[in-house]
Design a protein that fits this description.
Blueprint (H helix, E strand, L loop, with lengths): L18 E6 L9 H15 L4 E6 L8 E4 L2 E6 L3 E3 L2 E3 L2 H10 L2 E8 L4 H6 L5 E6 L9 H19 L3 E4 L2 H5 L4 H4 L4 E3 L21 E5 L8 H9 L7 E5 L11 H8 L5 E5 L4 H8 L3 E4 L8 H8 L4 E4 L6 H6 L3 E3 L4 H12 L3 H15 L3 H13 L6
Parallel strand pairs: 1-2, 1-7, 2-4, 7-8, 8-9, 9-10, 11-12, 11-14, 12-13, 14-15, 15-16
Antiparallel strand pairs: 3-4, 5-6
Helix pairs in contact: 7-8, 7-12, 10-13
Length: 390
């Protein structure tokens, strides 16, 4: 095996020989999810500030290299033997994480993660920071209920060993199934990093009618079928629904077939697929209202990006995901799985005056924009470093 395949092997040219922080999670770039993007932006931001950052993750795509440097972050991938629903079998992952932890001051673990308890037990002398993003969600059924309980126990085991537990908000933490465990550790609420996506061109608009948009992974937990039902009950022939997001490489699979059946022959509904780069800015510039109809959500980076672009969101009233709307007053909250309430709120937000949109964007940018998330991580990590400095 070459050093490129195994950069921790003897003779490797890997630099540096020691890391300030090793980030551990299942999926990393180029995979896209809210959790992955939060981990990536934090890791790359710290690397740009002079921190030596490693990421240890699964080689979820066999075409990806076992080791590479992405925007200053050293990414180590462990081979996957098999995929199971949203997870996988990778005995090499916790072992690789242990070897990197031995070369690191801090291990920053992103949960939920089925390997979390083992990696926490193998971290050695490294300090442990856990970011708990969300309670794991699987469609209801006896096997899935058992699976969720098992992952909860794994996460609780890791949380018990953590020096610091980070969540998107205290609201998210208190609403979690594992709150009784989290509350016994040092809790540090830090909102997920949100990128300013304003300034795009309305290239996805089709006419002058109301344009409603959703962006995210096309999966069951996003509740998109309720959005489609809400939209289809709107009789306006000029209205449009843009549903943007990946449905081809989603961990655990996508429910795109069921959603296409929900959409039926309605020509007003468009599935755009995954958007990247400037196309994301153009998406926000093309819509009048953003919808986040999730039945499981802990923050919703996309709704904050919409806010920062001046687009009012309609989100479900769930612990964590309601926090951006509740803290800014920009947008509306509706019960999950309620197409009628969703429709009425979308129509109400469609008539929001321009000056209120500008004010909402300014408030959201002040609360969630910039590098406040990075400053908070850096301050927390410095307190755990030997001597408190790099």
């Amino acid at each position: 095996m070459s050093p490129q395949d195994n950069p921790l092997s003897e003779g490797s040219t890997m630099r540096p020989s020691r890391f300030h922080v090793t980030v551990m999670l299942d999926y990393y770039a180029p995979y896209i999810s809210g959790l992955t993007e939060a981990a990536r932006l934090t890791a790359e931001g710290l690397a740009a500030r002079g921190w030596n950052i490693a990421v240890v993750c699964a080689q979820h795509d066999p075409a990806l290299p076992r080791y590479e440097v992405i925007n200053g972050v050293h990414v180590f991938r462990a081979p996957v033997l098999a995929n199971i629903s949203r997870g996988f079998v990778s005995p090499a992952l916790p072992l690789l994480a242990r070897r990197l932890a031995a070369r690191s001051d801090i291990v920053h673990m992103h949960l939920p993660n089925p390997e979390a308890a083992l990696v926490a037990a193998l971290k050695g002398k490294a300090r442990l920071v856990v970011t708990y993003h969300i309670d794991v969600f699987l469609p209801d059924g006896p096997v899935n209920r058992f699976g969720m309980r098992a992952v909860d126990e794994v996460c609780k085991s890791a949380v018990r060993k953590a020096d610091i537990v980070i969540t998107n908000s205290e609201d998210q933490a208190r609403g979690s199934r594992i709150w009784p465990t989290i509350r016994r550790r040092k809790l540090l609420p830090i909102s997920s990093p949100c990128v300013d996506r304003s300034g795009g061109q309305p290239r996805l608009r089709d006419g002058d009618g109301l344009h409603i948009g959703f962006m995210g992974r096309i999966t069951v937990d996003k509740g998109i079928e309720y959005l489609i039902r809400a939209f289809r009950s709107m009789p306006d022939p000029e209205a449009r629904l843009l549903i943007a997001g990946d449905y081809t490489t989603v961990a655990g699979g996508s429910n795109i077939a069921e959603l296409r059946a929900e959409a039926g022959d309605d020509p007003r509904i468009r599935f755009t697929g995954l958007l990247r780069g400037e196309a994301v800015r153009d998406f926000y510039a093309s819509i009048d209202v953003f919808a986040l109809p999730s039945i499981s959500e802990s923050f919703g980076i996309v709704q904050v990006e919409a806010m920062m672009a001046g687009i009012p969101p309609v989100s479900t009233d769930l612990s964590g995901s309601r926090y951006p709307v509740a803290s800014t007053g920009f947008g509306r909250l509706v019960p999950p799985r309620d197409p009628d309430a969703l429709r009425e709120a979308l129509l109400e937000m469609a008539h929001m005056p321009a000056e209120d949109r500008v004010a909402g964007a300014e408030t959201a940018t002040k609360l969630f924009g910039g590098e406040a998330f990075l400053d908070a991580h850096e301050e927390a990590f410095r307190r755990l470093l030997p001597g408190g400095r790099l």
